[in-house]
Design a protein that fits this description.
- By secondary structure, the chain is α/β, with parallel strands linked by helices.
- Helix 2 crosses helix 8 and helix 5 runs parallel beside helix 7.
- It is elongated.
- The longest helix is centred in the N-terminal third of the chain and has 17 residues.
Amino acid sequence: MRILFLALISVCSLIANASDFILAQKTEIKSDFLSENRTILVKLPEQYKDNDKEYPVLYVLHAQWDMLSTLSTIDLLEGQVPNFIVIGVEGMGKELRPDQGKSTVFSQFLANEVVPYVNKNYRTADFSILSGHSNSGRFVLDYWLNDKAPFSQYFAFSPSLEDKYITGRVSNLAPKQLKELSPLTVTIANEGNHMQVPFDELSQTLANVPGATFTFQKFPEQSHRTTKHHSMQFALQHTFTGWEPTYELKVSGFDGLTNHYRNLSDKFGFKVVIPTNTLQRLMAHHAISDSENAASELKLHIAYTIKEVSSGIAATVETAEYLLNNGYEEAGKTILKEMCNQAEEHARCKG
């Protein structure tokens, strides 16, 4: 039965309809702080228009360079991390430089114009990440040390630490102050002592803060540029460790599966539902299974799909039709029969 379920992981993925590839939509914001119009890039989850869910937000600085690598990494991690609204914020050079811990024009633009615009125009959950690489990584650290709303976590990849500005700010804070800061992930590639020495100093200082949630990771096989993908992958997987349930948990029963996603909702502060493709695979699994609890499990999975997924009936019908057309006729009929028991008004259930 395990082999059958794993096979369904591949075949059920073919059910989804193909869509045009769009990297991101450009949106222009009038900025009073910058005294100009500024473009941000917006990438919504593929299923955003099909439901009314709220989604966590990943803000990516240096978007003109780092949006593509971020989106490709998220795509590779599908199922292992949440579906994000990804916001790319362009910026470079002097505007990203810190100012002795003071709020800069760019930080005010980000906090007071970009984030409110995103929250107003998109369905955002109360969970967000600010991410930056190199010069923008230093900006992230400076912003993190000020610990201003609205970001929940911070990612700084190969941040520019050679001027000792960040390590100096950290050394001037007491452990109690550092402990109160938001979770932070910092990475570094193979970049020489001018970067390695302050990185080690920063990691050692923060490692001595009891109970803090600071993570440091080295990628000695990567360069300053190539570490972008590896760093984002590490940071997301570390932040959302255990997001995807194991195979054993998926097929162990509906109660265990829903409890897993309920715990994720409690942990991260936004509602997490079972992914549609997981529900489709499990419907197929239980429809084909000859175990004594297969019928009751199928009933529970279909009921959840119809109630919690905006396209739940369509997803159920797609699963049944796939089975009907691929040698599992009885299983397909079983799914349709149970669906009609719960949604008899559907056109497929009449006549």
